[in-house]
Structures are given as structure tokens and as C-alpha cells.
Amino acid sequence: MVRQAHIQKGWEYKKLGDAMHIARGGSPRPIKQYLTDDPNGLNWIKIGDATESNKYIYKTKEKITKDGLHKTRFVEEGDFLLSNSMSFGRPYIMKTTGCIHDGWLVLKEIEDIDLDKDFLYHLLCSPYLFEQFDKLAAGSTVRNLNIALVSSVEIPIPPLDEQKRIVAKLDECFDAIDKARANVEKNLNNAKELFQSQLNQIFSQKGDGWVEKKLGEVCSVTSKLIDPKQPEYLNLLHIGGGNIVAETGELVGLKTSKDEKLKSGKFSFDDSMVLYNKIRPYLIKVVRPSFKGLCSADMYPLSPNTDEISRDYLYFLLVSKKFTDYAISGSARSGMPKVNRKHL
Question: How many C-alpha atoms does 325 have within 13 Å on its Cβ side?
């Protein structure tokens, strides 16, 4: 077994249910009858009150009346919460008190078991535990964690001093990762600024032989919508705004017309075009596709129709701040700005 290969002297292994008291939450129903704005109400802890970047829950957005207490489960500061559905197995440590619904499991300390809170948190976040959760939940139509499943997984319990040493080492590693991530993000932002600065400089300082023309004079804009349910379109990939990574033009999560069960009219495109997303142009979602497919009606498929302009040049023009500012200036609606076709 995996645990036997890594067993250390002085370490013991226990079922999680033998090391912690585990219980499931409950919800007073209908919940709307128990929600209250009274500041003296009980915190009502929902998945939305926890974030993936934080291991603690400090406060909640909603409260319930004390009348609902007998139909739910009260948790205290220091208790562990484990999400038992959706992104199941994600742990949080309570930094307040409140009540939990049945989407949570609560893990409470057993007095004679020495478990450092930070050690247990890292353990619950580890692939070692997740793989056990994942294996035990496999095959279920709805992948939920229940008390019996969570209680059955094995955890290592080193001596308390060793737990603290492990935590210190892990915290040191995660601090280094956070600093590295911050440096990467800073460098990425600097690179984006440099890229835009270069584009702005190129398109602002005209060289010899440069001419200015309206975009419509050198590009055609596809305007005919087609029915994506027609047989010849069913297996073509579909691009929507949500499939485009802003500024990079990377495509993610693409599906065919058939898989997406498309019904409304779409534009067709090929690898000679540039797709310009007309919604929220300041996100700079522009794509140079390398295949034939369908795209949302919220895009303009642009085709260079003269040797005067190349597709790649058109792409860089469209992602430049100079062009983006121009596009925004002609947006029709302030709430959800769309680039006006005539303005484009």
C-alpha cells in the first residue's frame, strides 16, 4: 500500500473518523422563511462564503433566525468544514460560528488526538487525501462525500513536533510559490504594457508610403447568418466570446455545433479571416482561426479583400489600444457596449 511505503518511525495511521468527529449539516426548509436581517441572527454558511484562495471562513452574507437552529447544525470557531459536493473535499477552517446546510460536513477535534490544525488543513488539501476521496466517490451519479466515505479514509498522524516541522516547511514552500506567482504576474503585466506600447508606437508613427483607408475598404464583414442545425455544420467547432482568452487570442473549451446543441443563427468562418468580438471590446478578444467553423453572432468575421492588408497585420491592428479606444468610442450601449458595425 502507498502508506506503508512512506511510513515513518513514530507515525501512526488512523481512519479519519477515528481522529475527528464528523457530522453533516442540515437546512431548515423552506430556507427563505428562516433568513433574517437581524444582526443577532445566526451566521448561515454557504459555499459562496468561502473562496478557493482562502482557507478560513470569517463571515457570511446571510443569517438565519434561532428558530431554525434545531433543523441545522451549529459549528464553532476552529471547526473544519469540508464541501461534500461540487468541488468536493475542499477544506476550510472556521474563524467564526454559524450553521451549515447539507452541502457541508463538519470535522471537530477529539480531545485525546494530537492534530495540529495547519497540519490537518494541508493534509486535507493533499493529493493523498483527494485520491482517496475521488476513488471512493467514483461510480456515483452525483459525486458527493458522505460521513461514511470521509470517515473511512486513512490519515498519517506524526508526533506533534513533527507535524509542526512539516507545516513550517510547507508554509515556506507556499510562500515561495506565492512570490514566484506574483513575479510572473508582474512580468506578464509588464510584457502586456510593452506590447501595447510598441503597437501604439507602430500605428501612430506613419512611415513613407503609408496610406489611410476605412476598414470597410480593405475588409469584408460577414453578415449572413446560417442555421447551425444543418447537417454540414453539425461537426464544425463553435467559437463564442467565452472561448476566447482576452488579449492572447487563445481558444479554450471548444465544442461542435452538435455538442452545444446550437439553435440560433451563427456566422461561418475559415482560416482566411479574423474574428473580432464586438461585445466588451476593451477585453480585446480577437482570433486568427486555423480552421473552418462557426462563431457567435456577437462576432464580426473580417476577411481582407485586397493585397494591401495581410491577415496578421489586421489582427495586430485590432488588438491595439489605439483601435480598441476607437471601437469603444462608437459603442452603442453603456451597460453592455457593442461595437457598432457602421462605426467599425
Answer: 5
How many H helices and E strands in the chain? Answer: 10, 20
User: How big is the CA angle at 225 (ends 239 and 285), to the nearest 5 degrees?
Assistant: 30
Least confident of 177-186, 198-207, 295-304, 316-325: 198-207
DSSP codes of every residue in 119-172: HHHHHHHSHHHHHHHHHHHTT-SS----HHHHHHSEEEE--HHHHHHHHHHHHH
- Burial class of residue 19, CB neighbours in 10 A (0-12, 13-18, 19+): buried
Closest by CA to 58, choosing from 69, 45, 68, 39, is 45
The answer to whether the predicted template modeling score (pTM) of the entire model surpasses 0.90 is: no
pLDDT tens per residue, range 104-162: 999 999 988 889 999 999 999 898 888 888 887 765 555 678 899 899 999 999 999 99
Distance, in Å, from the CA atom of 66 to the CA atom of 205, rounded to the nearest integer, reads 69
C-alpha cell at 133: 476521496
Residues 103 and 144 sit within 8 Å (Cβ to Cβ)? no
d(CA 44, CA 26): 11
Cell of 139: 461510480
